[in-house]
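Title: Comparing notes on inverse folding

I've been comparing how different people in this forum approach sequence design from structure. To keep things fair, I'm posting one structure and asking everyone to reply with a full sequence. Here's the target:
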């Protein structure tokens, strides 16, 4: 009987310690809810019924899932543009927001840098004559709808811009010859063109456009959450997390394209 009482008391102490730890490690609302809600700049429309699920643009989903794993929580993504982050955070609609720049945030919003930055980079057939952005005027340039920086850059070149629901749709258009150039983040370009089927699309343009760093936005009052995020970003950097995530993205998108192309590439 005494042993049983001790066991119950030990279990209760462990539970209370876990609750106390959750409250001191930040994101208390997420812990209480049992779910981490992360705002992202863009969510692609869901696929049609029965359609295959495709890899989204960028690393936002991977970053959110990795943080959720650290907190021991499932993740739900919600579309929140950076200029609406403060209102969404204040209303408790999201626990934190991912953005491609901090912008002009009020003092109620804290900014935590990630160390991950990228800018658009072109994927072109290796036999192309295009070498610099000026060569692209009037040519078709394709990218995912979420890639707003890539779209703005292509428009500045005078290109004919075409956007697609997900990156693989844009890259299929490039492979099949219905689009001259595809734009992806330069961080994922190299691991993508390492795949044998992408060797003949490994030409590119001279670098152009500004590099933007992904940042986390969260309530300024959540000091524990800010500290946890800062520690996590340092840990991710030490562990080579960005290289692992970009490699996974490239592998997943290459497979998406493979599945979407029902016949061999007709360009030979």
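Reply #1:
Here's my take.
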């Amino acid at each position: 009987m005494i042993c049983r009482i001790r066991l119950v008391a030990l279990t209760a102490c462990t539970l209370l310690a876990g609750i106390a730890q959750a409250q001191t490690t930040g994101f208390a609302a997420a812990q209480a809810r049992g779910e981490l809600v992360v705002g992202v700049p863009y969510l692609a429309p869901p696929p049609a019924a029965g359609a295959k699920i495709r890899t989204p643009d960028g690393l936002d989903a991977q970053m959110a899932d990795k943080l959720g794993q650290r907190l021991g929580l499932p993740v739900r993504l919600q579309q929140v543009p950076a200029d609406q982050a403060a209102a969404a955070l204040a209303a408790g609609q999201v626990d934190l927001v991912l953005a491609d720049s901090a912008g002009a945030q009020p003092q109620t919003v804290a900014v935590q840098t990630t160390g991950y930055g990228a800018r658009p980079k072109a994927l072109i057939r290796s036999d192309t004559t295009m070498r610099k952005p000026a060569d692209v005027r009037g040519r078709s340039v394709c990218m995912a709808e979420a890639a707003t920086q890539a779209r703005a850059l292509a428009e500045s070149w005078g290109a004919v811009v075409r956007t697609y629901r997900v990156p693989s749709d844009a890259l299929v258009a490039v492979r099949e010859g219905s689009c001259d150039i595809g734009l992806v983040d330069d961080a994922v370009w190299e691991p993508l063109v390492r795949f044998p089927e992408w060797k003949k699309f490994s030409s590119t343009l001279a670098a152009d456009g500004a590099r933007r760093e992904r940042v986390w936005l969260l309530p300024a009052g959540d000091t524990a959450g800010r500290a946890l995020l800062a520690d996590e970003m340092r840990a991710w950097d030490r562990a080579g997390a960005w290289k692992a995530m970009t490699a996974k993205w490239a592998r997943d998108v290459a497979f998406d394209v493979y599945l979407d192309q029902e016949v061999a590439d007709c360009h030979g």
